[in-house]
Specification:
This protein has 338 residues and is α/β, with parallel strands linked by helices. 37% of the residues lie in helices and 25% in strands. The protein has 2 domains: 5-126 and 286-307, NAD(P)-binding Rossmann-like Domain (Rossmann fold), CATH 3.40.50.720; 128-280 and 314-332, Dihydrodipicolinate Reductase, domain 2. It has helices at residues 16-25, 40-50, 59-64, 80-89, 104-117, 131-141, 163-167, 172-175, 177-188, 279-282, 284-300, 308-327, and strands spanning 5-10, 30-36, 54-56, 70-73, 93-96, 121-123, 148-156, 192-200, 215-222, 227-233, 241-248, 251-255, 264-267, 270-273, 331-332. It starts with a strand and ends in a 6-residue tail after the last strand. The structure holds nicotinamide-adenine-dinucleotide. It comes from Ktedonosporobacter rubrisoli.
Amino acid sequence: MAEKINCAVLGLGRLGWLHAANLAERVAGVNLLAVADVVAERAADFAAQYAVPLHTADIDAVIEHPDVEAVVIVTPTTTHAALIQKAIAARKAIFVEKPITLSLDEARTIDQLVQQANAYCQVGFMRRYDPAYYAAAEKIRRGDIGKPLYFKAVSRDPQCPPEAYIRDSGRLFLDMSIHDFDIARFLMADEVVEVTAMGAVVKNAFLQTYADVDQALTFVRFANGATGDIEGSRNAGYGYDIRAEVVGTEGTIQVGALSQHALHIFNKRGATHDIFPGFIERFASAYVLELEDFIARLQRGDASPVTTDDGYKAVAIALAATRSFDEQRAVKLDYQPV
Ligand SMILES: NC(=O)c1ccc[n+]([C@@H]2O[C@H](COP(=O)([O-])OP(=O)(O)OC[C@H]3O[C@@H](n4cnc5c(N)ncnc54)[C@H](O)[C@@H]3O)[C@@H](O)[C@H]2O)c1
C-alpha cells in the first residue's frame, strides 16, 4: 500500500456523510479519492463541499477503480454482502458498517470469503473505540472487578428511524441491539451461548407492519456461566441514552453518562444538565478513532481488530434473539465453525 491510503466511501446517508467527512478532514494518512451514492446529487454535493476528486452513482466503477485501495461501506444493510464480495474480488481493503449482513448464511459466507482471500475487513462496531468502553475493557481484563458475573446494557434511541430505514434494517435486535451483543462479547471476553428475548411496540405503530418492536429486552447466558440483560428502545424522548455495566466478583464497572457536556445549570427549578441528542454526538470520537485505526493498520499491514468473525457472531446472536422473540422461547447458539 502507498504511504497515503486512497479510499472511497460508498453511501452518504446519516452515517456515511460523517465517515466521509471524518476521512476528508480528521483522519491522517488517507486520501479520500472518491465518494459514491445511488443518489448522484448527494455524492456531487459532498464532493463539492469537501473537494473530493471523484463522485459518482456508479458504485461498481468506484470499487473497481485501480487507484482505490480501500472502501468504506455505509450503504443500507441489505447491500453490504454484495458490496463486500465485489470489494474482495477487486482486492480492496474493506471497512463495513454493522451489521455485516442480515442472514446467517450470508454472514458465514462473507467470513469465509474474507479468510480465503486473506482480505482486510473491519466491522464498524465503534463502541469498542469509545474511550469509556475501551478503558472499561482494559480494567476488566486486568482484574479490577474480579471475575465478570453479570453484563447489563441500556441502549435507547431518542426516536424511531424513518419507515424507509426500518424496512431494510433487519428489525431491532439486528439493527440496534447488535451493538450491545458485540460490546457484551468485548467486555465479558466470552461468547453468548443462549438468549431469551422479549419485545413490544409501545409507541411507533408502523413497526407492526415489519414485525418489528420499539422496546426489547434480551437475557443472555455466556459460556462461562455469566449472564446479562440488554434493553433496546426507540422511545427515549429525553435523548440518546447508552449505558453498560459489568458486575464482577470484586466490584462493578459502569460505562456511559447522559451529560453531553460538563455543564450543570442550577436555578429555582432545580439542577439540570444537557443530554446527548444522538449517536453522532455520543460517539463522535469513536467514529474518528475507528477510521484512524483502519487507515493506520492498512499502512502498517496489520490485521483487522474487529473481524468478520466478530461480525458473524454478532449477527448470530441478533438472529437468535429475533427467533427467541418470534417463537417466545430460549434459543441456544452453537457457533458452527466457519
Ligand atoms: N455504527 C453505527 O453507529 C451506525 C449508525 C447508523 C447506521 N449504521 C449503519 O450504517 C449503514 C447506513 O445507515 P444510514 O443510517 O447511514 O442509512 P441512510 O439510509 O441514512 O443512508 C444510506 C445511503 O446509502 C445510499 N445508498 C443506497 N443504496 C446504495 C448502494 N447500493 N450503493 C451506494 N449507496 C447507496 C442512499 O442513497 C443513502 O444516501 C447501515 O448498515 C446501518 O446499520 C451504523
